[in-house]
Design a protein that fits this description.
Blueprint: H1 2-22, H2 24-36, H3 39-62
Length: 65
């Protein structure tokens, strides 16, 4: 379980690092666009992303990964 968590965190950091390294200006524009979205909508978006991630993790675990 700890190894799976470390693997997941490592993959997230790799993807986040790539985005910041390859497209820093796009990140700035995206953050400015997020500021225009009401907090309730950002919260709903975050919950939806979290649910999608949970489904992906459950699916991967059910495949035996």
């Amino acid at each position: 379980m700890l190894a799976t968590g470390a693997l997941a965190l490592g993959l997230v950091l790799i993807v986040e690092g790539l985005v910041y390294a390859l497209a820093p200006h796009a990140i700035e524009r995206m953050l400015e666009a997020f500021r225009l979205i009401p907090p309730e909508a950002r919260r709903a978006l975050g919950l939806a992303a979290m649910a999608a991630g949970l489904v992906l993790v459950w699916f991967a675990k059910s495949l035996g990964v």
